[in-house]
């Protein structure tokens, strides 16, 4: 959401819409994982989160941060799966499988955007922004 706010403040509405859509998806994943944990009587403790980064100077820095967060999510899921495997909790591993697939796709997508943005001039940045807006709109209609 922090990335969406940053993009919106710079009138990069396509990138803002795309990152907001992704933020909503991540919250949805969190709710799914919470619901799974509660149904299986796993202990749940909520802890405060640090304020997200928001002091970027260039769109490439935003996308680098997003890619880093996606990679961190992937590693967290892999750690949970490894513990589940050690404990013989195969239902947990099965539950996590779709999230692993989504993480592979997310890292690939964000990595591709970052590669384009890194070498982009001003005109190409606006074109990328426009295309991301179209993608976000298509996702919103699904």
TrEMBL record:
Q: Where is the Ferritin-like diiron domain?
A: 1-121
Q: Give the molecular function GO annotations.
A: ferric iron binding
Sorted alphabetically, which Pfam families does this protein's record hold?
Ferritin (PF00210)
Q: Which Gene3D superfamilies match?
A: 1.20.1260.10
This protein is called: Ferritin-like diiron domain-containing protein
Q: Which organism is it from?
A: Leptocylindrus danicus
């Amino acid at each position: 959401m922090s990335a969406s706010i940053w993009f919106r403040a710079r009138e990069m509405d396509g990138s803002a819409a795309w990152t907001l859509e992704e933020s909503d998806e991540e919250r949805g994943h969190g709710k799914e994982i919470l619901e799974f944990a509660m149904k299986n009587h796993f202990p749940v403790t909520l802890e405060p989160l640090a304020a997200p980064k928001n002091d970027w100077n260039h769109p490439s820095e935003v996308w680098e941060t997003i890619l880093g967060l996606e990679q961190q999510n992937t590693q967290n899921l892999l750690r949970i799966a490894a513990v589940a495997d050690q404990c013989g909790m195969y239902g947990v591993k099965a539950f996590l499988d779709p999230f692993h697939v989504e993480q592979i796709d997310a890292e690939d997508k964000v990595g591709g955007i970052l590669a384009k943005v890194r070498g982009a001039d001003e005109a190409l940045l606006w074109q990328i922004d426009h295309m991301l807006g179209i993608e976000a709109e298509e996702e919103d209609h699904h």
